[in-house]
User: Fold this.
Amino acid sequence: MFNPEKLLGGLIRSGVRGRGLGRMVSGGAALGLVGVAMEAVEHYMGRPQAESRNRPPGPPPLPGSAPPPPPPSSRVSVPPRPPAGSAGPVAEPASGNAAVLLIRAMIAAANADGVIDTQERTRILEKLKSLELSQQEHEFILHELLAPKDMQDIVSEVNTDDLARQVYAASLLAIEVDTEEEKGYLQRLAANLGLDSAAINAIHRQVQVPRV
Assistant:
């Protein structure tokens, strides 16, 4: 099962190469879908993982009776992983999914200075381990880390002012903004999204990140 809101929330919760803001991005500061993603991942992380393990065992079977059937699995079956050396098709999520767009915006921003190398990818995937990614989610995020989207590809999918603000906010949360490349990237992104100085200042206040 592919859950982009859970995946987006995990990236925001831990950061990509940025602050790992966690609960700082909450309530009114959450900027729409960013807040939905955070609620999704907090709900997912708060789900009792050991409920079935803590359940008392049932009564033993009567002599001569057939053993009871195994409980239905809660896991969604996934196709087998392609053999080593085969890239295999990566299932593309439905176009127009805002959570997917924000994931891509975060990864593109993290790649602004061109340093998402093997170690960076491994570190990001390690941070997401607590989300128990499905095979489809794992393959999707790895594919995006290996081939980040171009800024223009991301901007071309933004069709509302609200989504433009969310894309900028997600990109801002992904990085520390401590290099000239990152500063320049955010400036170009804001210009391409049509965000004026007042809107940018408001976003920085909402996510509690000073504007550089």
Remarks:
- The radius of gyration is 20 Å.
